[in-house]
Amino acid sequence: MHIISPVLWQFLVKWLTNFALFPAEASTIAPYTDALYFFLILISLVGLVIVALLVFGFSIAYRAEKNPVATHIEGSTLLEATWTIIPLALFMVCFVWGALLYFRIYNPPTNAMNIYIVGKQWMWKAEHPGGQHEINALHIPINRPVQLTMISQDVFHSYSIPAFRVKREVIPGRYSTVWFEATLPGTYHLFCTQYCGTLHSQMIGQIVAMKPEDYQAWTAGSTSGASLAQNGERLYASLGCNGCHSGQADARGPNLAAVYGAKLQLASGSYVTVDDAFLRDTILNPSMHVTSGYAPIMPTYQGQVSEEGLIDLVEYIKRLNSNYRNQQTLTTSQVSPAQAGTVAPNATSGPGMVKQ
Ligand code: HEC
Ligand SMILES: [Cu+2]
């Protein structure tokens, strides 16, 4: 999609990077956003030069001593059509180009790995499915699409990685997602780009993009013992979810195995596809969308589970595909499927519970 020769392009990028005007292009999308950006700058510059030259030229050609009496001009259809159609064509090019890029930026590839981000005044927490936790840092492999599922615990924040040319609002009460594929190993800036209070400027961190083998080593070395799904399983038992969602035929709640990604019919007759946001909503607001064929007896868990706890539950239910147990070795989990239905003794102080 480059509009100029690759050699000139490389030169331009290197030059701008060295002058620190432009961060490195470290993701697959970066050259594309930059190409559009440079195109916008280019046409603005061309417009600027044309206008400046005309002002300069006309003020000499039509100066007072050469034209003592002003000429009355009625207008020119050709001229007006020209200065309407050419800018319109340019704007349409920007629009189509921008729209195509927008769809690319907003649609994550289906094979993207997912990492959760919780923003709060004033720090970024990252939770990897394997249970690795980080504060104000994010380790990721290069050459692999990564999707971030993000939520705020308090006010609006915005997760921005300039070197990857991505940025997305992080909203209280709702998951938002962003994806990227890093191409260059290195350490890059992470910024909060939404003014969020006194220490907003310190809500920054490091993105560490690593070669796949280094990332593997990092993952193995920083695990906290239990994966998110394993924490979720414990929480699921301690909150008594399995009292109703036991998966047995006489259970009071629907079987949640393989519910993720499924299309559910609601009592209202409409259909929803079960995604992360739906799971989170159901746990906090079960009456919002009641599944067809069931009584609205599920209690709300509002105020009882932290955002991290909700992520653990979501991650657990996501992996509750029938073969989940065969894939995971639940060495750290105290809860076995046989215990389903009993409330764990530490029901008030599980790992994901809200601390009052
Ligand atoms: C008192 C029984 C009960 C408890 C406890 C309960 N649920 Fe439910 N749950 C239900 C019923 C009944 C439905 C279906 C009706 C509805 O959507 O409200 C449901 C629906 C759901 C759904 C929507 C998916 C579907 O197939 O309908 C999810 C997800 C869910 N529950 C998760 C949980 C989690 C997680 C917990 C624990 C934090 C929990 N439930 C605790 C009874 C319960
Ligand atoms: Cu912030």
List the helices and strands and how they pair.
Elements (H helix, E strand, L loop, with lengths): L5 H13 L11 H32 L15 H30 L6 E8 L2 E5 L5 E3 L1 E5 L4 E7 L4 E5 L4 E5 L5 E5 L5 E7 L11 E7 L1 H10 L6 H11 L2 H4 L18 E3 L5 E3 L2 H9 L22 H12 L5 H4 L29
Parallel strand pairs: 1-5, 4-10
Antiparallel strand pairs: 1-2, 2-3, 5-8, 6-7, 6-9, 9-10, 11-12
Helix pairs in contact: 2-3, 5-8, 7-8
Bound molecules: heme C and copper (II) ion.
Helix content: 25-40%
Q: How would you name the CATH homologous superfamily of the largest domain?
A: Cytochrome c-like domain
Distance between the termini: 54 Å
Strand-residue proportion: 15-25%
Overall radius of gyration: 28 Å
Keywords:
single chain; 356 residues; alpha+beta; Helix Hairpins; Immunoglobulin-like; Cytochrome Bc1 Complex, Chain D, domain 2; five-stranded mixed β-sheet; 12 strands; 35% helix; elongated; disordered C terminus; binds heme C; binds copper (II) ion
